[in-house]
Amino acid sequence: MNNSVYILKDRAILYVHGQDARDFLQNLISNDINKVTDSSSCFASLLTPQGKFLYEFIVVKHKSGFFIDCEKSQSEEILKQLNLYKIRSNVEILNLSNEFVVASFGYEKYLSLDSTEDILGFTMRYREDPIVLDPRNKNLGARLIINLEKLYLSLKKLELKDNKIEDYYKKSHKLGIVPKNLNKLKNKLFGIECNFEELNGIDFKKGCYVGQENTARIKLKNKLSKRLLPVEIIDGKLDEDETVYCNRIEIGKILINEEYPFALIKFSNENFNKDLTLKSKKGSFKIFIPEWLKI
Known about the structure:
This protein is an alpha+beta fold. It folds into two domains: 4-175, Gyrase A, domain 2 (2-Layer Sandwich), CATH 3.30.1360; 225-295, Elongation Factor Tu (Ef-tu), domain 3. The chain is built from six helices and 17 strands. The strands form three sheets. A six-stranded mixed beta sheet has the order 8-9-10-7-1-11, with helices on both faces. Strands 13-14-15-12-17-16 form a six-stranded antiparallel beta sheet, with no helix packed on it. A five-stranded antiparallel beta sheet has the order 3-4-5-2-6, with helices on one face. Strand 13 (243-246) and strand 14 (249-256) form a beta hairpin. It starts with a strand and ends in an 8-residue tail after the last strand. The relative contact order is 0.16.
């Protein structure tokens, strides 16, 4: 069994609590907040009114409120955005990133713990701290959200050994799930094009939320023609926002160009062939379609 643990120092923890916290989040996020209980967490996003991607995060019940586990580079913007929507709601939103940290460890290790269940998003407590089976994909393992002062004692008791965060990024990229640089996606694609339906981040049965109308329209009218897909560089380099070509026909755009690249690809285009080498101005690469994504 792999006992590696990754301290995700690039993650932040916000805390939303108060009498109206549940209703407040329900009116904003793409998933159903009622799925979030002491034993269940969810993946969700915050979209523009037009349904474009802004932010993504994992929502975990904590005491009388909710932890928002998000990328640190987006945390201050998420805090501001939530405060913009707060108006007269009885809600307080705190940034607890100096106190709490996220640690990720493997699926098999998670299953070896007492009281776990093999259900995406299943949440248990270890010495009062939540352990969540990643609600997007079980191969991303489990996440422990814990006070920094308790972290290393808990890792020792769990017999987990600190490993390089880059290994976690590689695993996530190989699974086709964006591990970092989410700000490069902002306003550039619809939330549903981020594969949020397949990653359990959208609930089509819940009521209104910001961006719901366009998201539902794309789904119901079968208008989804582009997908965010992971890229494997063969030669050269990639630049952000540059055009992707297949047989000299434009079929997409590079959105994340750095270590773990992703492109928005028109998969319904007749010129698209997942097995061909694609070109950009300065590089050649292949895209790969994750097993969990059926297109």
